[in-house]
Amino acid sequence: MTMNDFWKNKRVLVTGGAGFLGKAVVKKLLERGVKEDGIFIPRSREYDLREREAAKTVTQNKDLVIHLAATVGGIGFNKDNAGRVFYDNVMMAANLIHEAWLSSVEKFVGIGSIVEHPEFAPVPFREEGLWDGYPDKINSSYALAKRFMLAQSQFYRQQYGFNAIHLLSANLYGPGDNLDPRFSYVIPALIKKVADAKEEGKNYIEAWGTGGATREFLYVEDAAEGIVLAAEKYNGPEPINLGSGTEISIRDLTDLICRLMNFNGEIRWDVSSPAGQPRRVLDITRAKEAFGFVAKTALEDGLRKTVDWYRGR
């Protein structure tokens, strides 16, 4: 079966399809041969997926569901909105999986996160160690909601034979990222801070933490390719990490962004602000073996594209 054969005449629901990652996934689907009218993107103003009736409506007559919609932000947002983050994400996933099963959807692709892994898991994070500890407390409302989605997927597979898979994505970045400081992650936040400092004539920027924490980043187009490949080729019960397999300290990341943006000012580290999990990097062996996914975009190349996009907005 070729890729085009798999997607031929498929009717695909992409929740969050108008968002940062969603747009990249939709683009990949169109490239695979999915017809434009075969992709349905429910908008939150019309369909509140926390409500079962909305989930029932959007999953009817679909062959495949790719669930990207989420209530989530950076460290500050997740910390200040823990109840909302947990409730929204649990309810969306619970309703969508249940209604997709009732509607005889062929496959459900759930997108989780690297933060599901235990806070002090050995690095690189391996999928089989996912339940061996509590996640990073600042992001735990989101992490646990996503773990619940994984558990529901596995329970529905066990009882009903429902083909639901679960991918744990590294931190995403790339052109089109969210620049709103309430929701943005570290890369768009740093790019905006540097750009604002240059525009305002400041010779410094402020950054959270000590800079010692490490993170793994995955370029958005690579993430979209991994999701589509998994939809085509992976049908197993176990979660799969989706990442680049490389880590960088926040200090080195900040220095790199400053260099790419020709900013020579001081970086003032606010050690009173939360830095989050000490280290994050994924073991990506399973994704390569299961469906041939390897990230292609080097961090510096992806950052350069992201900076260029920001400047050209």
Largest sheet: 6 strands, parallel
- Quick one: overall form? globular
In CATH, what is the homologous superfamily? NAD(P)-binding Rossmann-like Domain
Please list the strands of the largest sheet in the order they lie side by side: 2-1-3-4-5-10
Number of strands: 12
* Unreliable spans: none
Span between N and C termini?
41 Å
The CATH class, by name, is: Alpha Beta
Number of helices: 11
Mean pLDDT comes to: 95
Number of domains: 1
What is the third-level CATH name, the topology?
Rossmann fold
Structural class: alpha/beta
The SSE string, one letter per element, is: HEHEHEHHEHEEHEEEHEEHEHH
Give a topology summary.
Layout: H1 3-7, E1 12-15, H2 20-32, E2 39-40, H3 52-59, E3 64-67, H4 75-80, H5 82-102, E4 107-113, H6 140-160, E5 164-169, E6 171-173, H7 186-200, E7 204-208, E8 214-215, E9 217-219, H8 220-233, E10 240-242, E11 248-249, H9 250-260, E12 266-270, H10 285-291, H11 299-312
Parallel strand pairs: 1-2, 1-3, 3-4, 4-5, 5-10, 6-9, 7-12
Antiparallel strand pairs: 8-11
Tell me about this structure.
With 313 residues, the protein is of the alpha/beta class. The chain has one domain (3-175, 216-246, 281-296): Rossmann fold (3-Layer(aba) Sandwich), CATH 3.40.50. It has 11 helices and 12 strands. It has helices at 3-7, 20-32, 52-59, 75-80, 82-102, 140-160, 186-200, 220-233, 250-260, 285-291, 299-312; strands spanning 12-15, 39-40, 64-67, 107-113, 164-169, 171-173, 204-208, 214-215, 217-219, 240-242, 248-249, 266-270. The strands form 4 sheets. It has a 6-stranded parallel β-sheet with strand order 2-1-3-4-5-10, sandwiched between helices. It has a two-stranded parallel ribbon with strand order 6-9. Strand 4, helix 6 and strand 5 (164-169) form a beta-alpha-beta unit. Helix 2 packs across helix 8 (220-233) and helix 3 crosses helix 5.
